[in-house]
């Protein structure tokens, strides 16, 4: 038996809440001290494995292995896809500006729309195309306000990150009749393996290597535990649950809430005042998401009434 279905409006609320939790990441990172992104990824993913396993055991008990088997290879690939999206985004920051990398995430809804149309045969309404175009313009406003460019390799990596997230959104829709939350366990295990190897072995992405690099201090671990349990686990659960009733292109559109809200939390927590263009572009993106949600929710109710009448 598949997960219980619910309305489009509820799906939008779940996915928007999930993206909002994701946006806390930057502010929480600013609360750490003396550690790098790979150490954060390793311990955050470890917390995710523990939280997700506990949550799924509470929900399904002894039937959890059969649920994971039912989700199958689709859940494994989905977990690796969203993990790769995060990793390539982090790596892109070594080669380009933050603004350039974030701007590239604006193409994610378009990639999801193309993949969803090709693989899932999900028709993309005109209002969704319009909302995605408006959101991309909002990302452009944010990028323009920084007054900086980026290197080619960093841009390519950021685009690949957007592609991987689009694959994740489509795979969630593809497996909506199974318990796709198990993909989050595969995601965390994949990130533990990759980040652990980067910390242990000499690479261009980590200044020093060795077992001693796993020592981060209890204060840092406390912050990372919040990141793993709240920002990432809760965010991914809500986003995954919402994906049951929201098309792939719209999932990626709603996910743009994350880069829109991230500068605000950093402003509140670390007093990092974002440029006025960030507020302007963020407002444009949020307007696009609201327009999409309102029009689609209205159409969803209209279709429901027509079905009831028939």
Task: Describe this protein's structure.
- By secondary structure, the chain is an all-alpha fold.
- It has one domain.
- It is 76% helix and 0% strand.
- It contains 13 helices and no strands.
- The chain has helices at 8-22, 25-30, 37-60, 64-92, 98-104, 108-120, 126-146, 152-174, 183-200, 218-242, 248-255, 257-270, 276-309.
- Helix 1 runs antiparallel to helix 10, helix 1 (8-22) packs across helix 12 and helix 6 packs antiparallel against helix 11 (248-255).
- It is globular and about 55 Å long.
- It starts with 7 loop residues before the first helix and ends with a helix.
Record keyword descriptors for this entry.
310 residues; mainly alpha; 13 helices; globular
Question: Helix and strand layout, with pairings?
Answer:
Elements: H1 8-22, H2 25-30, H3 37-60, H4 64-92, H5 98-104, H6 108-120, H7 126-146, H8 152-174, H9 183-200, H10 218-242, H11 248-255, H12 257-270, H13 276-309
Number of domains: 1
Assembly status: single chain
- Spans of at least 5 consecutive residues whose pLDDT stays below 50 are none
Shape: globular
Q: Please tally the β strands and state the result.
A: 0
Order of helices and strands: HHHHHHHHHHHHH
**Which radius of gyration do the C-alpha atoms yield?**
19 Å
Range of strand content:
under 5%
| Sheet having the most strands | none
Structural class, from secondary structure content? mainly alpha
Mean pLDDT, nearest integer? 80
Number of H/I helices: 13
Range of helix content: over 70%
- How far is it from the N-terminal to the C-terminal residue, by CA? 27 Å
